[in-house]
């Protein structure tokens, strides 16, 4: 691998925003690893992604809720490519219901995936990112600053993720690791079993977030966009 080639690991990269980021980084020549809880799912997507871009792509079965599995994903990247330059903590779930109807299982899955998952992500990757003077990006949400009825679990996870990311940005900046959180509004994806249709054209598209990540990574390292809110230009 060329010394100039960069390596990125994206959790939840088999669909939605994660897939859009993977596509954009591959087109930029990155070596990309994407994770999913299903090896069958990630293998299918890898087969499709091999048709685009100049970079290499691999798929890894890993649950963001498991520190051991995330450590394994990082180690696979290092074993294959010798380094890790970018970690995108993207995997997320959403359960929406009034608090009296929200189950314990839904609460724990939301918090464990959306908040504990990124904590495990940085714990698994921080030494590799220090070595490469790399970048850690979390995908939060405008729901991380704007609360709404039925969003107790999701709001809690995204408010927490926004604060967590800003705190570790301060922890790691002088070690040469840049940290950014991206907070999208409405994105046209199948998140929460949504069926994407022409009615979603007004929304942010997954490739838009991919392009944003590329732009962030191209920015001079002396400048750090630590928190970025992104919303559709117009409402529906």
UniProtKB/TrEMBL annotation:
Q: Which Pfam families match?
A: adh_short (PF00106)
| InterPro entries in UniProt | KR_dom (IPR057326), NAD(P)-bd_dom_sf (IPR036291), Sc_DH/Rdtase_CS (IPR020904), SDR (IPR050259), SDR_fam (IPR002347)
Which residues belong to any copy of the Ketoreductase domain?
A: 6-188
Q: Which domain of life is it from?
A: Bacteria
* PANTHER family according to UniProt: 3-OXOACYL-(ACYL-CARRIER-PROTEIN) REDUCTASE (PTHR42879), 3-OXOACYL-[ACYL-CARRIER-PROTEIN] REDUCTASE FABG (PTHR42879:SF2)
Entry similarity comment:
Belongs to the short-chain dehydrogenases/reductases (SDR) family.
Name this protein carries in UniProt: SDR family oxidoreductase
Species assigned in the record? Albibacterium profundi
